[in-house]
């Protein structure tokens, strides 16, 4: 045909303009706004699954992970975003690239697809094992020198040149027959044997470059460990292992793996492989129940507890009628009800609802789900308010462990959880533990100056309770400088910090005077003890001399 019957050039050009405008809007507006929300802390995805949901809710496809990582890298270089953002993005790209690598390997060989255990172990060891030694490279290079027939070459690496063969002369009486040498069958090399650590990382980096247009900066940089450009302590292999297993359907043994060894995984560590499928089920079983849930949470944030309670109760009844109690919306409804009851003063009811939400999240989503960790943290808050601080601290520690497993130690929420744990310890009089928790909170908090100021203020109060007014004054001076830099001199928080500084200064001076008086009294007591000791010695000496004189007189009389 001389023309495209199904394509109108005008319509195609208009469609291309619309697509270009949408792409430009996505690149210049949507993605920078998403990064800005992460930078401000408005959204904080706890793992790759939460990151995927957030990106899809904002209309961003996962192929833009590299673009987001590039923006996060630039912001991190100027101290404008948390470290965990780039760590989470690179771990997600690695997990997705490993899925494609594993699919290519399994599709290339039927035998490997039938028994994939060896390939899985090799891939895991190649990613998580230590760097290969030079001796292995030498061994592989010496192995490459072997000829096709399995024999090594002569000295100098040269083989004798074959003699040219002349064509046989035509003779009637004799015929020369040349019998070729038998070639040995080529060794069958399986796909698994070709997967070493170097090959795996080369294929992964190529996959990430082609799919996400990004070059890894944190992973596979062991050879550049002396370089100042390579950040240390940013590779969290447990986080990547968890996400990699989620993406590929792997189940591994729960134990402490030695990632410093070259082969941290053995074939027995892989307990199973399960299919990972996509479904078309609706996110919410009943749209009306979802609307009521959102309205109830909105009234809760506005402080209308009675209205929020009614809406959430109606939502819970509708969800129970449609899908039963086992649904994520039911768990979210129970969490919201627990918050309403907590603010209303019904601590027992709040604890019961939060325990129900925790059980639902654990059964439906798993023990390492990010909402399960937040459910532990909320339950700890309610238990502490009810006077069960020992149980509350245990739930807080569980929440911190789960969040470190999901997002790594630089996740911002971990800093606030350590702060809450310090407050709990401080309320029950455990000052030493409170100071340790507050110091850990300061160590984990990277960019939040307000959180740092509040933590330093609580450390000052803890030192004041323990009698260390000089240390309390030093901490409160830091609080004053942070609040003054952030809000100015006229802010009420700055004024309050000034009052605390004056109070701690006064108590420190009184403590110093008291110490001087105590030292003077102790010195006087020491002098008095010395005088008493001297008098005692003199009395004993006089008594001894009298006894000697009496004995001498008695001997003279006799």
> Poorly predicted ranges (pLDDT <50, ≥5 residues)?
132-180, 182-188, 223-232
By CATH, the architecture of the domain at 286-408 is named Alpha Horseshoe
Stated plainly, the CATH topology of the domain at 286-408 is called Serine Threonine Protein Phosphatase 5, Tetratricopeptide repeat
Instruction: Provide the spatial order of strands within the biggest beta sheet.
Output: 1-2
Q: What is the overall silhouette?
A: globular
Approximate helicity band: 55-70%
Averaging pLDDT over every residue, what do you get? 81
| Backbone CA Rg | 37 Å
Q: Mind summarizing the main beta sheet?
A: 2 strands, antiparallel
> Strand portion, in percent?
under 5%
Written as H for each helix and E for each strand, in order along the chain, the element string is HHHHHHHHHEEHHHHHHHHHHH
SS-derived structural category: mainly alpha
CATH class wording of the domain at 286-408: Mainly Alpha
Number of helices, where a helix is a run of at least 4 consecutive DSSP H or I residues: 20
Domain CLU central: 43-259
Protein name: CLU central domain-containing protein
Organism: Globisporangium ultimum (strain ATCC 200006 / CBS 805.95 / DAOM BR144)
Pfam families: eIF3_p135, TPR_12
